[in-house]
Structure formats: structure tokens, C-alpha cells
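Job type: complex structure
Entries:
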Amino acid sequence: MAAGPRPTAAEAYRPNRFVSLPAELDPATFDASPEKRRAEAERLAIRARLKRQYQLQLNNPNPPAIIEDPALLRWAYARTQNVYPTFRPTPKTSFLGALFAVGPILFWIAVFKADRDRKEKLIQEGKYERPFSVF
Amino acid sequence: MLKVIFPMIMLIPMTLLSPQKLLWPNTTMHSLLIATLSLHWLLPTYHPYKNLTQWTGIDQISSPLLVLSCWLLPLMIMASQNHLQHEPPMRKRTFIMTMIAIQPFIILAFSTTELMLFYISFEATLIPTLILITRWGNQPERLSAGIYLLFYTLISSLPLLITILYLHTQTGTLHLTMIKLNSSTIPASWTGTLSSIALLTAFMVKAPLYGLHLWLPKAHVEAPIAGSMLLAALLLKLGGYGIMRITLLNPTLNYLHYPFLTLALWGALMTSSICLRQTDLKSLIAYSSVSHMGLVIAACMIQTHWSFSGAMILMISHGLTSSMLFCLANTNYERTHSRILILTRGLQPLLPLMATWWLLANLTNMALPPTTNLMAELTIMIALFNWSTFTITLTGVAILLTASYTLFMLLMTQRGATPTHITSIQNSTTREHLLMTLHILPLLLLILKPELMSGIPT
């Protein structure tokens, strides 16, 4: 069989390690399946509803002092109050906890103890030079 | 001594019997007069203990803390006026009475010379604080905050009680001067180690030390403004004061200070870095309190003259600064009813006068020269450096992170674009400006005479 027509520049442009494929060159954006289009329509409906809520409050003749943003509230809740309820001790989290929480404490205890013992040994042997002499 | 305690107790009938219109002016004026009266404790004297009675005595460690606690009561009353204005009068009186109820116990705790009385007043300050947090907090999380506060402190202070009683049987007395005169009766064995741990742990939880600090962000965040000011400025210093007293009594000859010091210094670093990731403004200030008090604990652990002096200055400066930061955060909260940091942004064009106070509070928090915060942090850093050269990595990084999160807080709340969803903001009231002035004025004046609070025997 003869080779087909050469690929166009757009088709020859494929994502590599440094650059991802932009949405305009991705065939999936244009030939969207019905499920994808339905999902897109649902997301658009949610966005439109939120925007309508926001604009209703914003253009109210007696606007409230603060228009609350539900996404912000959920994000703040997830970051402040929902951390421990969604925590589960796994081997990975236990290892991370031991490494970053317990490890540095023991490390610094060892460092200070070694430093103090070295200084104590020098003082006992009379070799410690007092940096600030009172004389 | 009595000339301050009696007026303090008489504040309670004053709040109950004042006419409704004069409730706030009466209580504020009365407590300001008590604060002015308490200033005479700072006068120098060659006696080791001023105002000596059988059960109280004031020396250079207690007098700055006592003056701070008397000074803070009018500030707390002023700060609570706004969020209580819609409550019925009896509830307002109850709130003020809860605040006033803590004061005699704090004054007792800081001025007593007997360990048992210190323990009783130390524990007694918990109950009104618990009432303040769980009854007048704003979120449902205040219940868990109250439980954390209560049980952390109580569980750690039971060994303290047992060790105090044991000390009583060994020494026959619990008077601080007598214990100092008797040679240390703590044997160098497991009993000695355990009793030293027991004596210190209660104050470590209060101070708080890094591993035992979980109650603090919850309690500070959920408390009303008066509760936050009280906790940050006074109750944390109870822990620091307790550590100073205990380590002055029996210098720990064993290796206890290694874990405490490491936890304190590493905790200062860790909590400073946690501050950079906070979404809640009050939580940020609460973690910054943990960081500063970590430095205080580290300084108390090495027990040199300079470090005790630095710890004292840091306790007083941090008390005033932290209280001021909580008041500022509360002005934000009262306007937007939210503590989310990125919600109340770009306030400088809207409230420029309050931006001045924000700037001053953040400058003192990041230990800008010539404030006393800097004097304290430098003194502690140098004392720790002398103790061991490698501490400077931890303290240096902690101070760097302190500056960065303080700047983060300042720039986040003051600079930038005003969020579009805030449609109206009330003006800053004179009351709020007066509150900030009364916070920052002692801090600025103490730059001129820091020996008032440095714990140096005059």
C-alpha cells in the first residue's frame, strides 16, 4: 500500500516531555461523546446557578455586608476541622510521622548532648577557653 | 496586697448593682483605677520580697506579670463591649463577672509564696476560662475546645499535686523561701527524675510546650475576644512563671532539660512554619503564641541569669503583642463574622487608621528593633548560644520564620485588592482605637525602661 497523505503540522504536533497537548489540538474536545457533553452541561448548570446566586446578592438594593462563598467555606472547613477525621494511620503516614516528627527531636537531643558532653570534657580537662573573660 | 485584691473582689458587686447605662463605664473605670494602683509594685526595692505577708510576696519575677494582669482587665472589658451589645443586661453582667472572677486567682497565683496556694489558684483560673470559652464562644467547636483545655491541664497537673504533697512531707513546708533555704531534697534517682518531670509537666502543658500544645489553637480560636486575650496574655504566662519558680527551687541536675529544650526549640520552628499555612487568622496568632512561648521555655530550661531575664521580657512583651493581635483579629471578625484569612483582605484603603495598629502590632510581633520583643529574643538567643552552639540554627530559623509569617499576616490582611464580596464595612470605633492605644503604649514605653520587667534584682 502507498503511504497516506503526510500528517499535517497540527497532527504531527504531539505532546512530549516538556509540553503538554493544548486543548485546541486535542481531537477529543471536538468529537465529544454524548456522556461528556452531558457532564459539561451539568457543570455549566452548576456554575450558572452559583453565578446567579452571587449576582442576586450583589445587585440586591439592600446587599448583605458579606456575600458568603460556599466554596471558600468548604475549603476552610476541610483545611481546619476536617483534617483529623479524615486521617487514618497507614504504614506510610506512620513512617512519615516518625521521620519528620519524632526523628528531628531525637536528632537534636543527640546533637545537644554530644555538644554539651564535649564542652564538659574540655572543662574537666581545663582546656575550655572562656570566650568572654571577666578580667 | 489587699489594697488591690479587695477592689478586685468589689468589682463583682459593682457589676451586679450598676445601672444598665453605666455598666461598661463603671467597670472599665474601676478596673483602670486598680491597674493604676498596681503600678507601684514595679518600684524598685532592696528587699527580696515586696509587700511581704504570710502568704504573698512580690519580687522581680512576679511584679511585671501582676501589673500585666491588672492592666489587662480594663482592656478585656473594653474589647467585649461590641459582641455583647445585643445580650440582655443580666447576661452582660454575668460575662463581666466571669472575667472578673479570674483576676483574684491570677493575682494570687503570681504573688503567692506558697506552692499549695499557687497550685490552687493555678487550677482555679481554669473554671471561669472554661465558662468563657464554652458558653460565649461562637462556633460549635467550642465544646471540644473546652474539653481539650480542661483535660490537658487537669491531667498534667495531677502529678504536680502529688509531687507538691510529697515535697511537703520531705521539707515540712511549702513556702518558697524555705524550700530555697533547705538544700535540695530531690534525690538523684528515679524518684528525683519523676518528681522533676511531674513538677514541670503541668506548666509545660500550660506554657505550652510543642508536643503538649494541642489545646491552645482550639481554645484561642473558639474563645470570645476577652477569653483569647486572657489566655494569650496571662494564662500562658502562668505556665512560664511556674517553670521559672520550679527551676529556681530545684535546679534539675539530671538530663531532663534535653528533651524539654529540644521540644521547645524544635516546636518554635515547627509552629512558626505551621503559621505560614494557616487559613484561620486567630489560629495563626495562636500558633505564633506557641512559638514565642517555646523560646521562653527553652530559656527557662537553661537557667542562666540572662536567659531568665530574656524569658521575663519576652513573656511581658508577648502578652501585650499577642493580646493586641487578637483584638485586631476580633475587629475583623466583628465586621465579617468570619476568621478566614483570605476573606478579609486589602483593608488598608478601607480602614487606614486600623491599618496603623495592624502595622505596629505586626512589627512588635516580628521582634523589630528597638522593641522589647527584640531585646528578649536576642537575650534568649545569646544565652542559648552560650549553652550550646548548635541552638542558633533552630532559634535563627525560628526567628526568620516568625518574621515571614508576621509579614504574611500583615500583607494578607492589609494589602492587596479588596475582595469584591464585601459590600460594606463599619468604621473603626473610638473604643477600638483606644483599645489598641492602651495595648501598644506600654510596649512602646517599656522600650525606654526595660529593667522594670527584666527580672533583674534591683
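Summary: Residues 305-336 of chain B form the longest helix (32 residues). Chain B has a mean pLDDT of 90.
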